[in-house]
Amino acid sequence: MPRSIWKGAISFGLVTIPIKLYSATEEKDVSFRQVHPEDGGRIKYKRVCDKCGKEIPYAEIAKGYEMPDGRMVILDNEDFASLPLPTTKAVEVVQFVGEDEIDPTYFGRTYFLQAEGPGTKPYVLLRDALIKSGRSALVKVALRSRESLALIRPKDDMLLMHTMLWPDELRDGSFAAPSPDVTVSDAEVTMAQTFIDALAGDFQPSEYVDSYREAVEALVESKLEGTELPSEEEPEEEAEVVDLVAALRASVEAAKKRREEAESKGAETGDAAASGSPKTKTKKAG
Question: Which pTM value belongs to this model?
Fold first, then answer.
């Protein structure tokens, strides 16, 4: 079991729910070291004070808030612990909202909420009440030295909490919108909908993999073994699209073909698993 990153309570009216918080996600990006290419030695960085020139251990580094006039206010752990902020140890429910009312752009990290001790029954009460009402709890909570809005929602048998950005942290993206002078025809929209229908389906997360991570790992293995990776064929340069309807029609046909091939491959895999023997490939004579 992972370690909890926060302990506190949910204030649900006059009901208090002691909880522990656990990270619900972990990023599995490819990790690299900065090294000297001549000998593979790792590059290290020192934390040096720009006034006295001394190297400062991480444990002795404090947080400083610089004023507009250049004055530096130094804050330590005791200062942060004494903040008059109720959300440092309590998740304060401020409103109940429909989940579809929240723009996904607001969402940050996701956490599991686990009831602690006597909090199990009120936890189940909140979970079941949210399910029956079709709503989620909008809350305020202080995590990692900052206060955030967050959304608590039921999923399966548990409660999840999604931290959110504040409204002034969302950038205005109107600059990216196409000019209103650009229009498309009904025929183009209809063909685009046909393409969407051709690729429509239920979301199956297990069907998707991080191809970049797999390619890097294969590259590392080939370097260790002194072998070369098979070269990829260069994609053909596509001509400039002039007729959108024709391009979409060709896209629909290609999508249908890919789906048929995927379904055929899935059926073969299922047959092989059912027979208890690995799938074999047969070469065509010729």
Answer: 0.69
